[in-house]
Each structure stands twice: as C-alpha cells, then as structure tokens.
Amino acid sequence: MDISSAAVRRPGDDITLLTYGGSLPKALSAADLLAAEDISAEVVDLRTLRPLDDSTVMTSVARTHHAVVVDEGWRTGSFAAEVSARITEQAFYELDAPVARVCSAEVPIPYARHMEEAALPQAEVIAAAAREAVGHRG
Question: What Gene3D superfamilies does the database record attribute to this sequence (predicted)?
Fold first, then answer.
C-alpha cells in the first residue's frame, strides 16, 4: 500500500475513528478503552491529507455506521470539518448518528506539557465522543 492510501490500523465494527499523525496513538488508546466496554472501534490512519483517500473512509463508515474524526487542529475551519463534510456528502444514508469531531481547544497551543495535553485531543475524550455517537453510556 502506498502512502497516498489510508490504512486501517485496527479493524472494528461499531464505530470508525479517523485520524492522522500525532493523534493516531491516542485514537488507538481510545479504541482499547472502548474495547473494554464491548465497543469495537475501527481506527483509520488517513496518512495523507491531500489526496484524501475517500474510498477507505467511506468503506469503513458504511460498515460501522458511526464516525469520529480526531484532529489536533482547531475545530473551526479544521481538517476534521472537511472530512466530516465528505462523509456527510458521500455516505449520509450510511450514518446512524451525526459525525463527531474531537479537536484541539481553540487556544494557542501552550508550551507547558500539562497545558498542552489539556488543549490537545486525548484518548479519554475520543472514547467519550465514540460512546456518545453509538449511544453507549459507559
């Protein structure tokens, strides 16, 4: 598989977690948290953003019927918004719930590590968004 194709890093049936770069390990950790609650999360590593591998994204969403896009960018004007829009345009009737987005806090990224971690998406927040998307109270 060449770098221009997304890669399924963890297969799953209940929800698709879409991410790239530094958020990938956090999405995989979130999938572990969800697995402990019997929620099977597929983790898709987008790998490249342009071109975006719509085919892999839509195939996964069509199988799980739920999606959470994880992006270290701000929510406003984010790449997560673009991915969400594409899913809505191409796979709307496959969705059982709105596409969720987990993004960074809309603040300049702080230097102090504990503050940086508070501003960036973390596994627990990703897992909470996934639980809400599938209607699971965990």
Answer: 3.40.50.920
